[in-house]
Amino acid sequence: MTKLSSNVTVRRIRVRGGNFKFRALRLDAGNFSWPTEAVTRKTRVLNVVYNASNNELVRTQTLVKNCIVEIDAAPFRQWYEAHYGVAVGLKKKGAAAEETKEETKRSNHVQRKIEARQAKRHLDQALDDQFATGRLYACVSSRPGQSGRCDGYILEGKELEFYLKKMQKKKGKSNA
Fold it and tell me: Mind listing the UniProt keywords for this protein, alphabetically (predicted)?
């Protein structure tokens, strides 16, 4: 079982046919994909928040396939701001903070490219709220105990709504 820890430990294991697997015993980061934007960044895994199979895996911070984790939003925020030229995840007092940010000098070509991107951009409100907190919910799609990596994708749309509902139910049960 792979635990969430900053003391990263990955073992190489010989398997049938003389091949090797990588068993991750402890991990703290992985490659996570943002499907609608088609971008992948390496980011820290901060917390295990939900597991459909067993709540014990959440309590012990165990990373397995299809568990829901909180990841650091900073790499994706930096990419979004560079790609679209728009600050994301601002809290309500964002207007004052936006004025203080000085405008960087850009070529005419780059300005036109960013304006064209802005016309097509759409950011889900639930995702924007998560950017404001600095944490995104993601699903682990790799098998850390088999591949030695913790890779996955950011939750969006209906899937995000579904897991938020499930997490609220579990919180309600634990409080009662």
Answer: Ribonucleoprotein, Ribosomal protein
Separation CA 149–CA 43 (nearest Å) = 12
Burial code (b: 16+ CB inside 10 Å, e: under 16) for 119-158 equals eeeebeeebeebbeeebbbbbbebbbbeebbbbbbbbbee
The strand order across the sheet containing 20-27 reads 9-14, 20-27, 2-4, 62-63
Whole domain around residue 62: which residue ranges? 2-97+106-175
DSSP-assigned beta bridge partners for residue 70: 47, 137
Q: Are 160 and 168 in contact (CB under 8 A)?
A: no
Could you tell me the CA-to-CA distances from 156 to 50, 84, 92, 96, 112 in Å, in that order? Answer: 16, 19, 22, 29, 29
Q: What is the number of structural domains in the chain?
A: 1
What's the pLDDT at 35?
92
What does the pLDDT read at residue 96? 45
SS3 content of the chain, % helix, strand, coil (to 5): 40, 30, 30
CATH classification at residue 88:
3.10.290.70
